[in-house]
């Protein structure tokens, strides 16, 4: 028996357990640079939880050939007409891909190419599996009225480039229009 048991995890009672799991919580106050409607953002309670991530890192960050595992839980809600969503990022090593598997709820995976000229989205529903190409920024939004959760698996040397998105955003945002999630040009 070695101590590499981090690879064996269980998802039960809505939580990841059974190995070392790192948890992080993103609240309204942590997400000042992602929502477009600044006035609606200012009216939101700063401590309201937007999403949580549970991650398992079985190898050291930067290890070539390893994989990380995570589960993201996005709460239902909107800032103005824009759905609660993750910060979004490119991978630091741009060619590193990722797989998402939706577990519960409904949402959209929003994708953007490397020169920001194209943004598109895939519908997430329980059981949907999403392959995210390298060189593609990714962010997820909860378009339903219950928690959206999904598993993710990405290379342990991928790294996260949040700065590009923090500075320039995605060139389209996902808003509710006549009750329908719709991608529109960033105002
Ligand atoms: C995911 C994301 C997770 C949270 O595990 O990290 O959904 O989104 P942000 O990292 O954009 O806040 C992933 O894509 N990992 O690479
Ligand atoms: Zn990623």
Structure write-up:
The chain is mostly beta strands and 187 residues long. It has a single domain (9-185), classed as Jelly Rolls (Sandwich), CATH 2.60.120. The protein is 6% helix and 45% strand. It has two helices and 17 strands. The chain has helices at 38-43, 163-168; strands at 10-12, 15-17, 22-27, 49-56, 67-74, 78-79, 82-83, 90-91, 98-104, 107-112, 119-124, 129-132, 137-142, 148-155, 160-161, 172-177, 180-185. The chain has a six-stranded antiparallel β-sheet with strand order 3-4-5-14-9-12, with no helix packed on it. Strands 11-10-13 form a three-stranded antiparallel β-sheet, with no helix packed on it. A two-stranded antiparallel sheet has the order 1-2. A hairpin with a 2-residue loop joins β16 (172-177) and β17 (180-185). The longest helix has 6 residues, at 38-43. The chain is globular and about 45 Å long. The relative contact order is 0.20. The model has no long low-confidence stretch (mean pLDDT 94).
Report the major sheet: 6 strands, antiparallel
Give the % helix: under 10%
User: CATH topology, anyone?
Assistant: Jelly Rolls
Oligomeric nature of the chains: single chain
- Stretches with pLDDT under 50, minimum 5 residues: none
CATH-defined architecture: Sandwich
The overall average pLDDT, rounded, is 94
Domain count, please report it: 1
**Silhouette:** globular
CATH class: Mainly Beta
Beta-strand share of residues:
over 45%
């Amino acid at each position: 028996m070695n101590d590499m048991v981090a690879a064996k995890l269980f998802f039960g009672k809505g939580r990841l357990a059974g190995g070392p799991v790192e948890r992080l919580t993103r609240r309204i106050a942590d997400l000042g640079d992602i929502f477009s409607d600044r006035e609606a953002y200012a009216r939101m309670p700063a401590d309201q939880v937007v999403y949580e991530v549970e991650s398992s890192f079985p190898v050291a960050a930067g290890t070539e050939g390893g994989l990380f595992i995570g589960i993201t839980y996005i709460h239902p809600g909107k800032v103005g007409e824009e759905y609660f969503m993750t910060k979004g990022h490119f991978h630091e090593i741009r060619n590193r891909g990722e797989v998402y598997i939706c577990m519960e709820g409904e949402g959209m995976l929003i994708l953007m190419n490397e020169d920001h000229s194209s943004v598109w989205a895939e519908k997430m529903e329980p059981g949907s599996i999403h392959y995210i190409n390298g060189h593609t920024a990714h962010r997820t939004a909860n378009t339903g009225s219950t928690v959206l959760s999904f598993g993710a698996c990405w290379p342990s040397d991928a790294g996260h480039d949040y700065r590009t998105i923090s500075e320039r955003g995605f060139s389209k945002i996902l808003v509710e229009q006549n009750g329908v999630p719709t991608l529109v040009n960033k105002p």
